[in-house]
From TrEMBL:
Catalytic activity, as annotated: a quinone + NADH + 5 H(+)(in) = a quinol + NAD(+) + 4 H(+)(out)
CDD domains tied to this protein: TRX_Fd_NuoE
Entry keyword set: 2Fe-2S, Iron, Iron-sulfur, Metal-binding
Gene3D superfamilies: Glutaredoxin, NADH-quinone oxidoreductase subunit E
Membrane-spanning ranges: none
Cofactor remark: Binds 1 [2Fe-2S] cluster.
Origin: domain of life: Bacteria
Pfam short name (any one): 2Fe-2S_thioredx
Needed cofactors: [2Fe-2S] cluster
Protein name: NADH-quinone oxidoreductase subunit NuoE
Keyword Coiled coil: no
InterPro entries assigned: NuoE-like, NuoE_dom, NuoE_N, Thioredoxin-like_sf
Family: Belongs to the complex I 24 kDa subunit family.
Length: 158
């Protein structure tokens, strides 16, 4: 299921820890798998568990605890809007509603074309930059006005 390149990345993570603490690389391993596959299916979590040598339920516990892991399929572009109180009071709720209207979906939904999934997120550590959004868990977007949201969506569509 996972490519050889993904296993090489996981091996680099495993090399950072003593042999009896391989489970310490589980978060990084899940992240590499998710980048490659887009989400973490039960089969993928089992594959990682087998490779690392830890119980599958322990891998699943990690994947379901942290909201950066997708345990069901998501769109090509997952946009997470910070709706924690400071962002909400500084335009986060408005930005989220603007995106819902623009994309025609609600939080935790994916557009019919599979391009966008919209999620609510907790504090992203950039309260002074509100409203804040995170694209595919890797790209932070700050001060998101309606015009900046329009530009972001158009950029991602390309």
């Amino acid at each position: 299921m996972l490519s050889q390149q993904c296993y090489q990345k996981i091996d680099r993570e495993l090399a950072k820890y003593p042999a009896d603490q391989r489970q310490s690389a589980v978060m990084a391993s899940l992240a590499h798998a998710q980048v490659e596959l887009g989400w973490l299916s039960p089969e993928t979590m089992q594959e990682i568990a087998d490779y690392i040598g830890m119980p599958a339920i322990a891998v699943q516990e990690v994947a379901t605890f942290y909201n950066m892991f997708n345990i069901k399929p998501v769109g090509k572009h997952k946009i997470t809007v910070c709706t924690n109180l400071p962002c909400a009071l500084s335009g986060g709720e408005r930005a989220g509603q603007f995106l819902k209207d623009k994309l025609g979906i609600d939080y935790r939904d994916t557009t019919e074309d599979g391009q966008f999934t919209l999620m609510e997120g907790e504090c992203m550590g950039a309260c002074g930059d509100a409203p804040v959004m995170l694209v595919n868990n890797h790209r932070m977007c700050s001060f998101m006005s309606d015009a900046k949201i329009d530009a972001l969506v158009e950029e991602l569509k390309k």
